[in-house]
Amino acid sequence: MTDTVVDRFLRYVVIDTQSDPKSPAQPSTEKQQNLGRVLVAELQAIGLSDAHGDEHGYVYATIPSNVDKPVPVICFCSHMDTAPDFTGTNVKPQIIQDYKGGDIQLSGDPQQIIRVSDNPALRDQVGNDIITTDGTTLLGADDKAGLAEIMTAAQVLVDNPDIRHGTIKILFTPDEEIGRGVDKVDLGKLGAAFAYTVDGETAGHIEDETFSADGVEITIQGVAIHPGFAKGKMENAAKIAGTILSRLPKDAAPETTAGREGFVHPTGVTGSMERAVLNFIVRDFDDEGLAAKETMLETLVKGVMAEYPGSSCTFEIKQQYRNMKAILDRHPQLVENAIEAIRRAGMEPVRGSIRGGTDGSRLSFMGLPCPNIFAGGHAFHSPLEWISRQDMEKAVKTLVELAKIWEERA
Ligand SMILES: [Zn+2]
After folding, report:
1. What distance in Å separates the CA atoms of residue 157 and residue 145, rounded to the nearest whole number?
2. Are 29 and 20 in contact (CB under 8 A)?
């Protein structure tokens, strides 16, 4: 008996792998290695003898080519950590066999209801088997679905030598959710020409565009003085920070934008009378749009600071990641092959853009062009996360077809 994609998925989601943005270590949490060790053991059991983990939390393995002709080496990649937004401790997956439609109430917390109105994709799932949590944790389909799908595809390729394919590399990364998923990856050792992250949402989707992303940190130095003697002198840094926030444009926020619109979003504010720090993320699909939003923010800050002549501030921009489309457009076969694989796996391909980043956007700029293929999960980073068995099976099929297509077209 071989494991199904669901068997694997259920095994991985109960291992807590939440990453921690406050930890300077890599992996940021030692517990991610618990899953890494399981994955290495399973890869070796499949027959991938070079499978190994390293001290930074990465897992590497190779499915050797079974043809004589040269085929570009491709890599399938997914991440092992789950988001810091919601707890991943003690996940209790629930399976709804043969979903009949309608809202899904979660058994562990009656407040938690997966509503069709919030999840229109549920309408396409009638008759499928849906996996959720009990409502007290996230599920971790992001991206343990990707792990289970890549693992299962690897098993299919190894067990069926009649399926012709080139060398396929497997890469599982830690700390994607905190933006450090590829910090310590060894691309030389990986030795792939192209890669696919299996970390997207709806079945049939492929994404070749991400946001371009920067962080901005604004530090305000106010004029602190005993409040009893403050008249005409005090400049309260906490209030200056509040003024800046109140003047942000309402139409360039995550809650008011969609599609290809970018935004400026305060992610944190700490402060006292003396000193306040504002953290922002800035997002846009092109670099000019990103720069324009940063200029707008800086101008706004200068305008506020001009009202407080005794105070000062610093404005620091940190590059986070860039839209990978510029790189992927140079290698059109990468997306074309994936579109064909999705079609052969029985779906209508949908090409899209991600309002966020993936490991793939950074990998693309590090020299490993890397679009993102669906993994099938929905409502990421929340206790309402769900995925269906059938969509995971479609992802497995897509990966197997993709391996074949690269060989056929080489
Ligand atoms: Zn993910």
Report:
1. 18
2. yes
